[in-house]
Amino acid sequence: MNSDHGNVQSPRTDSHNLFLTLHRMLDGLAWEAVRAEFRYDPASPLLVSLTFLVTHGPRVTWYVGRDVLHQGLRSVSGTGDVQVWPTYIGEQTTVWMQLTSEEATVLFEMSARPLEEWLDHTYRSVPAGSEMARCDVDRCLAGVLGGGVARE
After folding, report:
1. Angle, CA of 71, 41 and 8, to the nearest 5°
2. How many domains does the chain have?
C-alpha cells in the first residue's frame, strides 16, 4: 500500500465503533479496498469484533484480542489465526494484519493513526488490566472459544 490509499474515517469519541477502509493484498501489485467496522463492547472487554462490510457477499466477523491490535501498533503481535505488525514508511505508519482460516490466509494494510486513536478511546472506557473485573466470563469465553469467525 502507499499513501494513495488514505480513505479512512476518523473515530467518533462517543462511539465504540470505528469504520476504516482496509486494503487487501491480492498479489504483489494489486490491492482491493475493503470497508471494515471495528466494534468494542465494554461488556466483552477483551475482544474487538471486526466485521468486513462486503458490498456483494456475506459479512464476515472476526474476533480479535484488543491487546493484540494495540501491541501490533508497535511490534509483531499475535500468533495463529491473527497476526498484526507495524510498518514505517517515512513519517507514516501503517499496520498489517494477517487473518488465517481453514479456507484462506488474507493480508490487509491499514492506516495506524485512526486505529490507535480509537483503541486509546477504548482504553479510556475500560483501562488495561481492569478487563476481568468488568468481564462477563461466559460471554468472554464464548467469544474467545467461538472460533474467531462468524458469517452473517
Report:
1. 60
2. 1
CATH number of the domain enclosing 92: 2.30.31.20
- What confidence tens digit (pLDDT) does each residue in 64-104 have? 999 999 999 999 999 889 999 999 988 889 999 999 999 99
pTM of the model: 0.78
Domain assignment present for residue 2? The answer is no
Q: Is residue 1 part of a domain?
A: no
> Do residues 36 and 30 touch, judged by C-beta distance below 8 A?
no
Residue whose grid cell is 457477499: 57
Beta bridge pairs of residue 109: 23, 96
Residue 69 Cα to chain centre, angstroms: 6
